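We emphasize that the prediction below concerns an isolated chain of 383 residues; any contacts that depend on oligomerization or on bound cofactors are therefore not represented. The input was used exactly as deposited, without trimming of termini.
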Amino acid sequence: MKLSHIHGQDSWRFNSDMVDAAITRQGGHLAPVRFRLPHGVVEPFSIAPWAEEKIGPKLPALLQSLRGDFFCAPFGGNEKPYRGEHHPPHGETANAQWKLEEIRKSKAETELHLSLETKVRTGRINKMIRLRRGETSLYCRHVLSNMSGKMNLGHHATLKFPDAPGSGFVDTSPISFAQVLPTTFEQPSQRGYSSLKPGAFFSKLDQVPALDGTLADLSRYPARRGFEDLAMVVHQATPEFAWTAVTFPKQRYVWFALKDPRVLRSTVLWISNGGRHYPPWNGRHINVMGLEDVTSYFHMGLAESTRSNPISERGIATHLSLNSTTPLAINYIMAVAAIPRKWGRVKTITAGPHGITLHSTAGSDISVTLDLDFLYLGSRRTA
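Result of the prediction step, given as a C-alpha coordinate string:
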Protein backbone atom coordinates (compact mmCIF):
# COMPACT_ATOMS: atom_id res chain seq x y z
CA MET A 1 0.00 0.00 0.00
CA LYS A 2 1.28 3.45 -0.92
CA LEU A 3 2.26 5.95 1.75
CA SER A 4 0.52 9.31 2.06
CA HIS A 5 2.30 12.45 3.26
CA ILE A 6 0.16 13.69 6.17
CA HIS A 7 1.13 16.62 8.39
CA GLY A 8 4.79 16.25 7.47
CA GLN A 9 5.03 12.47 7.88
CA ASP A 10 4.82 9.51 5.52
CA SER A 11 1.80 7.62 6.79
CA TRP A 12 -0.49 4.72 6.02
CA ARG A 13 -4.23 5.30 5.89
CA PHE A 14 -6.82 2.74 6.96
CA ASN A 15 -10.53 3.02 7.67
CA SER A 16 -13.88 1.50 8.48
CA ASP A 17 -17.41 2.77 8.01
CA MET A 18 -17.09 4.85 11.21
CA VAL A 19 -13.37 5.68 11.50
CA ASP A 20 -10.71 7.18 9.23
CA ALA A 21 -7.19 6.78 10.61
CA ALA A 22 -3.57 7.38 9.69
CA ILE A 23 -0.36 6.13 11.28
CA THR A 24 3.16 7.40 10.66
CA ARG A 25 5.91 5.13 9.38
CA GLN A 26 8.39 6.92 11.64
CA GLY A 27 7.53 6.01 15.22
CA GLY A 28 4.10 4.53 14.53
CA HIS A 29 2.22 7.60 15.76
CA LEU A 30 -1.56 7.21 15.34
CA ALA A 31 -3.20 10.45 14.09
CA PRO A 32 -5.15 12.03 12.64
CA VAL A 33 -8.12 9.85 13.53
CA ARG A 34 -11.61 10.99 12.57
CA PHE A 35 -14.64 9.37 14.18
CA ARG A 36 -18.09 9.69 12.61
CA LEU A 37 -20.74 10.32 15.26
CA PRO A 38 -24.47 10.98 14.65
CA HIS A 39 -24.02 14.76 15.06
CA GLY A 40 -20.78 15.02 13.03
CA VAL A 41 -17.09 14.13 12.80
CA VAL A 42 -14.79 14.50 15.83
CA GLU A 43 -11.00 14.40 15.89
CA PRO A 44 -9.67 14.24 19.47
CA PHE A 45 -5.95 13.59 18.99
CA SER A 46 -3.25 16.25 19.04
CA ILE A 47 -0.72 16.91 16.27
CA ALA A 48 2.38 18.97 17.12
CA PRO A 49 2.24 22.52 15.69
CA TRP A 50 5.71 22.08 14.14
CA ALA A 51 4.71 18.94 12.20
CA GLU A 52 5.38 20.58 8.81
CA GLU A 53 8.68 22.14 9.93
CA LYS A 54 12.21 20.74 10.00
CA ILE A 55 13.25 20.75 13.64
CA GLY A 56 16.87 19.62 13.25
CA PRO A 57 18.74 16.31 13.48
CA LYS A 58 19.83 16.74 17.11
CA LEU A 59 16.27 16.29 18.40
CA PRO A 60 14.75 12.79 18.69
CA ALA A 61 12.70 11.57 15.75
CA LEU A 62 9.60 11.21 17.89
CA LEU A 63 9.38 15.01 18.24
CA GLN A 64 9.13 15.33 14.46
CA SER A 65 6.30 12.80 14.35
CA LEU A 66 4.65 13.80 17.64
CA ARG A 67 0.92 13.19 17.43
CA GLY A 68 -1.96 11.09 18.67
CA ASP A 69 -1.11 7.81 20.36
CA PHE A 70 2.13 5.85 20.10
CA PHE A 71 3.57 2.83 21.87
CA CYS A 72 6.64 3.26 24.08
CA ALA A 73 9.05 0.46 25.00
CA PRO A 74 10.78 1.51 27.11
CA PHE A 75 8.59 4.43 28.20
CA GLY A 76 10.19 7.71 29.21
CA GLY A 77 13.28 9.83 28.69
CA ASN A 78 15.81 6.98 29.02
CA GLU A 79 18.66 9.40 29.70
CA LYS A 80 20.49 6.79 31.77
CA PRO A 81 21.69 3.56 30.13
CA TYR A 82 20.39 0.27 31.47
CA ARG A 83 22.86 -2.64 31.45
CA GLY A 84 24.58 -1.31 28.37
CA GLU A 85 21.33 -0.44 26.60
CA HIS A 86 20.89 3.22 25.69
CA HIS A 87 17.35 3.60 24.37
CA PRO A 88 16.06 6.78 22.68
CA PRO A 89 13.28 8.75 24.42
CA HIS A 90 10.20 6.50 24.59
CA GLY A 91 12.11 3.73 22.85
CA GLU A 92 12.73 2.65 19.28
CA THR A 93 9.00 1.99 19.02
CA ALA A 94 8.35 5.76 19.06
CA ASN A 95 11.27 6.74 16.79
CA ALA A 96 12.22 4.00 14.33
CA GLN A 97 10.79 3.11 10.93
CA TRP A 98 7.97 0.59 11.10
CA LYS A 99 7.31 -1.92 8.33
CA LEU A 100 3.86 -2.49 6.89
CA GLU A 101 2.96 -6.18 6.95
CA GLU A 102 -0.62 -5.85 5.70
CA ILE A 103 -3.90 -4.01 5.91
CA ARG A 104 -6.57 -6.68 6.06
CA LYS A 105 -10.19 -5.78 5.28
CA SER A 106 -13.40 -7.77 5.56
CA LYS A 107 -17.07 -6.89 5.89
CA ALA A 108 -16.75 -6.99 9.67
CA GLU A 109 -13.42 -5.24 10.32
CA THR A 110 -10.20 -3.64 9.14
CA GLU A 111 -6.84 -4.46 10.72
CA LEU A 112 -3.52 -2.72 10.19
CA HIS A 113 -0.42 -4.82 10.94
CA LEU A 114 3.02 -3.20 11.33
CA SER A 115 6.24 -4.73 12.60
CA LEU A 116 9.53 -3.50 14.03
CA GLU A 117 12.82 -5.36 14.51
CA THR A 118 14.41 -3.66 17.50
CA LYS A 119 18.17 -3.18 17.74
CA VAL A 120 19.00 -1.71 21.16
CA ARG A 121 17.46 -4.80 22.71
CA THR A 122 17.04 -7.24 19.89
CA GLY A 123 13.58 -8.59 19.35
CA ARG A 124 10.40 -8.07 17.36
CA ILE A 125 7.30 -6.03 18.03
CA ASN A 126 4.09 -6.50 16.09
CA LYS A 127 1.61 -3.63 16.12
CA MET A 128 -2.01 -4.40 15.23
CA ILE A 129 -4.78 -1.82 15.18
CA ARG A 130 -8.29 -3.08 14.49
CA LEU A 131 -11.41 -1.18 13.46
CA ARG A 132 -14.78 -2.93 13.67
CA ARG A 133 -17.79 -2.14 11.51
CA GLY A 134 -20.39 0.00 13.25
CA GLU A 135 -18.02 1.02 16.06
CA THR A 136 -16.11 4.18 16.88
CA SER A 137 -13.37 2.20 18.63
CA LEU A 138 -9.65 1.51 18.16
CA TYR A 139 -8.37 -1.89 19.28
CA CYS A 140 -4.59 -1.58 19.77
CA ARG A 141 -2.43 -4.66 20.32
CA HIS A 142 1.36 -4.82 20.65
CA VAL A 143 3.09 -8.18 20.87
CA LEU A 144 6.70 -8.24 22.09
CA SER A 145 8.58 -11.41 21.15
CA ASN A 146 12.16 -12.75 21.16
CA MET A 147 13.00 -10.36 24.01
CA SER A 148 14.01 -11.04 27.58
CA GLY A 149 14.65 -8.89 30.62
CA LYS A 150 12.90 -6.06 32.40
CA MET A 151 10.92 -3.46 30.45
CA ASN A 152 8.75 -0.47 31.33
CA LEU A 153 6.26 0.43 28.64
CA GLY A 154 2.95 2.03 27.75
CA HIS A 155 0.73 4.01 25.43
CA HIS A 156 1.17 7.77 24.93
CA ALA A 157 -2.25 9.10 23.92
CA THR A 158 -2.30 12.91 23.57
CA LEU A 159 -5.53 14.85 23.19
CA LYS A 160 -6.07 18.38 21.91
CA PHE A 161 -8.65 20.27 23.96
CA PRO A 162 -10.79 23.09 22.54
CA ASP A 163 -9.24 26.50 23.20
CA ALA A 164 -11.47 27.54 26.09
CA PRO A 165 -10.78 27.21 29.83
CA GLY A 166 -12.24 24.00 31.23
CA SER A 167 -13.60 22.82 27.87
CA GLY A 168 -12.95 19.17 28.82
CA PHE A 169 -13.62 17.15 31.98
CA VAL A 170 -11.08 14.45 32.91
CA ASP A 171 -12.20 11.44 34.96
CA THR A 172 -10.73 8.05 35.85
CA SER A 173 -11.66 4.75 37.44
CA PRO A 174 -11.01 4.51 41.23
CA ILE A 175 -7.57 5.75 42.25
CA SER A 176 -5.31 3.91 44.68
CA PHE A 177 -3.07 6.97 44.98
CA ALA A 178 -1.52 9.63 42.78
CA GLN A 179 1.58 11.81 42.86
CA VAL A 180 3.08 14.82 41.16
CA LEU A 181 6.47 14.09 39.60
CA PRO A 182 8.94 14.09 42.55
CA THR A 183 11.62 16.01 40.67
CA THR A 184 11.39 19.37 38.94
CA PHE A 185 9.71 18.81 35.58
CA GLU A 186 10.80 22.08 33.93
CA GLN A 187 13.65 24.46 34.73
CA PRO A 188 13.08 28.24 34.45
CA SER A 189 16.80 28.60 33.69
CA GLN A 190 16.12 26.49 30.57
CA ARG A 191 12.95 28.46 29.72
CA GLY A 192 10.57 25.82 31.05
CA TYR A 193 7.93 26.38 33.74
CA SER A 194 5.83 24.12 35.98
CA SER A 195 3.04 24.89 38.45
CA LEU A 196 2.45 21.78 40.59
CA LYS A 197 4.27 20.97 43.84
CA PRO A 198 6.94 18.31 43.14
CA GLY A 199 6.31 15.02 44.91
CA ALA A 200 2.89 15.98 46.29
CA PHE A 201 0.51 13.06 46.84
CA PHE A 202 -3.20 13.37 46.09
CA SER A 203 -6.28 11.16 45.78
CA LYS A 204 -8.60 13.42 43.81
CA LEU A 205 -7.85 15.08 40.48
CA ASP A 206 -9.46 18.33 41.59
CA GLN A 207 -7.30 18.70 44.73
CA VAL A 208 -3.66 18.70 43.67
CA PRO A 209 -1.12 20.82 45.60
CA ALA A 210 0.42 23.62 43.56
CA LEU A 211 3.66 25.55 44.08
CA ASP A 212 1.78 28.69 45.12
CA GLY A 213 0.05 26.92 48.02
CA THR A 214 -3.32 26.52 46.32
CA LEU A 215 -5.00 23.35 45.10
CA ALA A 216 -5.03 22.84 41.34
CA ASP A 217 -7.90 21.12 39.53
CA LEU A 218 -6.54 18.64 36.98
CA SER A 219 -10.04 17.41 36.13
CA ARG A 220 -10.93 20.55 34.17
CA TYR A 221 -8.73 21.48 31.26
CA PRO A 222 -7.35 23.65 29.64
CA ALA A 223 -6.02 25.44 32.70
CA ARG A 224 -2.77 26.96 33.97
CA ARG A 225 -1.69 28.46 30.64
CA GLY A 226 2.07 28.94 30.54
CA PHE A 227 2.94 25.78 32.48
CA GLU A 228 4.04 22.21 31.83
CA ASP A 229 3.31 19.57 34.48
CA LEU A 230 3.47 15.82 35.04
CA ALA A 231 1.65 13.60 37.52
CA MET A 232 0.92 9.88 37.78
CA VAL A 233 -2.30 8.16 38.83
CA VAL A 234 -2.17 4.56 40.11
CA HIS A 235 -5.46 2.78 39.48
CA GLN A 236 -6.95 0.22 41.80
CA ALA A 237 -6.07 -3.22 40.42
CA THR A 238 -9.21 -5.04 41.53
CA PRO A 239 -11.75 -3.93 38.87
CA GLU A 240 -12.18 -5.97 35.71
CA PHE A 241 -10.77 -3.02 33.79
CA ALA A 242 -9.54 0.50 34.45
CA TRP A 243 -10.50 3.55 32.43
CA THR A 244 -9.75 7.18 31.69
CA ALA A 245 -12.31 9.48 30.08
CA VAL A 246 -12.49 13.03 28.78
CA THR A 247 -15.89 14.65 28.27
CA PHE A 248 -16.23 17.52 25.79
CA PRO A 249 -19.69 18.96 26.60
CA LYS A 250 -19.87 21.60 23.87
CA GLN A 251 -18.68 19.15 21.21
CA ARG A 252 -21.11 16.55 22.67
CA TYR A 253 -18.83 13.56 22.86
CA VAL A 254 -16.64 11.62 25.26
CA TRP A 255 -13.26 10.01 24.54
CA PHE A 256 -12.28 7.07 26.72
CA ALA A 257 -9.55 4.46 27.06
CA LEU A 258 -9.86 0.98 28.59
CA LYS A 259 -7.06 -1.23 29.93
CA ASP A 260 -6.27 -4.18 32.16
CA PRO A 261 -4.83 -2.42 35.27
CA ARG A 262 -2.73 -5.48 36.11
CA VAL A 263 -0.82 -5.03 32.84
CA LEU A 264 -0.84 -1.24 32.41
CA ARG A 265 -0.71 -0.24 36.07
CA SER A 266 -0.81 3.56 36.04
CA THR A 267 -1.70 6.63 34.00
CA VAL A 268 0.78 9.46 33.48
CA LEU A 269 -0.88 12.83 33.02
CA TRP A 270 1.26 15.09 30.84
CA ILE A 271 -0.27 18.55 31.04
CA SER A 272 1.21 20.65 28.24
CA ASN A 273 -0.06 24.22 28.05
CA GLY A 274 2.66 26.47 26.71
CA GLY A 275 5.20 26.01 29.50
CA ARG A 276 8.16 25.17 27.24
CA HIS A 277 9.81 28.12 25.54
CA TYR A 278 12.71 26.26 23.92
CA PRO A 279 12.74 24.68 20.43
CA PRO A 280 10.67 23.20 18.96
CA TRP A 281 8.00 23.96 21.57
CA ASN A 282 8.52 27.75 21.68
CA GLY A 283 5.47 28.31 23.87
CA ARG A 284 3.02 27.09 21.20
CA HIS A 285 2.21 23.56 22.39
CA ILE A 286 -1.01 24.45 24.21
CA ASN A 287 -4.26 22.85 25.35
CA VAL A 288 -2.76 19.35 25.11
CA MET A 289 -3.01 16.62 27.70
CA GLY A 290 -1.31 13.25 27.53
CA LEU A 291 -3.33 10.43 29.12
CA GLU A 292 -0.59 7.82 29.03
CA ASP A 293 -1.41 4.33 30.29
CA VAL A 294 1.82 2.73 31.44
CA THR A 295 3.70 0.38 33.72
CA SER A 296 6.57 2.73 34.53
CA TYR A 297 8.08 5.04 37.12
CA PHE A 298 6.68 8.28 35.77
CA HIS A 299 8.52 9.23 32.55
CA MET A 300 11.98 8.60 33.96
CA GLY A 301 12.95 5.67 31.77
CA LEU A 302 14.05 2.05 31.94
CA ALA A 303 16.89 2.41 34.46
CA GLU A 304 14.75 4.27 37.01
CA SER A 305 11.72 2.01 36.48
CA THR A 306 13.59 -1.26 36.99
CA ARG A 307 15.32 -0.39 40.25
CA SER A 308 13.61 0.20 43.59
CA ASN A 309 11.74 3.50 43.59
CA PRO A 310 9.09 5.14 45.80
CA ILE A 311 6.26 3.72 43.65
CA SER A 312 7.56 0.14 43.50
CA GLU A 313 8.21 0.29 47.26
CA ARG A 314 4.44 0.70 47.66
CA GLY A 315 3.95 -2.60 45.87
CA ILE A 316 3.10 -1.07 42.49
CA ALA A 317 4.78 -2.56 39.43
CA THR A 318 6.89 -0.07 37.46
CA HIS A 319 8.17 -2.62 34.92
CA LEU A 320 7.29 -5.97 33.38
CA SER A 321 9.50 -9.00 32.79
CA LEU A 322 9.92 -10.23 29.22
CA ASN A 323 10.61 -13.86 28.34
CA SER A 324 12.13 -14.66 24.95
CA THR A 325 10.12 -17.88 24.68
CA THR A 326 6.73 -16.37 25.65
CA PRO A 327 5.47 -13.32 23.71
CA LEU A 328 3.89 -10.55 25.76
CA ALA A 329 0.70 -8.91 24.43
CA ILE A 330 -0.32 -5.40 25.49
CA ASN A 331 -3.97 -4.77 24.61
CA TYR A 332 -5.66 -1.37 24.75
CA ILE A 333 -8.97 0.11 23.60
CA MET A 334 -9.66 3.76 22.77
CA ALA A 335 -13.09 4.94 21.66
CA VAL A 336 -15.47 7.87 21.44
CA ALA A 337 -19.23 8.12 22.01
CA ALA A 338 -21.82 10.82 21.46
CA ILE A 339 -23.42 12.30 24.58
CA PRO A 340 -26.70 14.18 25.15
CA ARG A 341 -26.65 17.90 25.91
CA LYS A 342 -27.33 17.37 29.62
CA TRP A 343 -24.68 14.78 30.34
CA GLY A 344 -22.35 16.24 32.96
CA ARG A 345 -19.24 14.08 33.07
CA VAL A 346 -18.34 10.42 33.37
CA LYS A 347 -19.09 8.98 36.80
CA THR A 348 -18.16 5.38 36.06
CA ILE A 349 -17.89 2.84 33.26
CA THR A 350 -19.23 -0.70 33.71
CA ALA A 351 -19.18 -3.87 31.64
CA GLY A 352 -22.32 -4.89 29.78
CA PRO A 353 -23.50 -7.85 27.71
CA HIS A 354 -22.37 -6.29 24.42
CA GLY A 355 -19.66 -3.88 25.57
CA ILE A 356 -19.68 -1.17 28.20
CA THR A 357 -22.01 1.41 29.71
CA LEU A 358 -20.94 4.95 30.55
CA HIS A 359 -22.77 6.41 33.55
CA SER A 360 -22.84 10.19 33.90
CA THR A 361 -23.02 12.52 36.88
CA ALA A 362 -26.34 13.78 35.47
CA GLY A 363 -27.87 10.31 35.77
CA SER A 364 -27.76 9.39 32.09
CA ASP A 365 -26.40 6.12 30.71
CA ILE A 366 -24.87 5.41 27.30
CA SER A 367 -24.28 1.87 26.06
CA VAL A 368 -21.34 1.38 23.70
CA THR A 369 -20.93 -1.81 21.70
CA LEU A 370 -17.36 -3.11 21.77
CA ASP A 371 -15.35 -6.27 22.43
CA LEU A 372 -14.23 -5.89 26.04
CA ASP A 373 -12.68 -9.38 26.03
CA PHE A 374 -10.03 -7.99 23.66
CA LEU A 375 -8.23 -6.51 26.70
CA TYR A 376 -7.27 -9.97 27.90
CA LEU A 377 -6.50 -11.67 24.59
CA GLY A 378 -3.16 -13.47 24.98
CA SER A 379 -1.92 -11.16 27.73
CA ARG A 380 0.00 -12.13 30.85
CA ARG A 381 -1.55 -10.32 33.79
CA THR A 382 0.90 -8.78 36.23
CA ALA A 383 0.13 -8.14 39.90
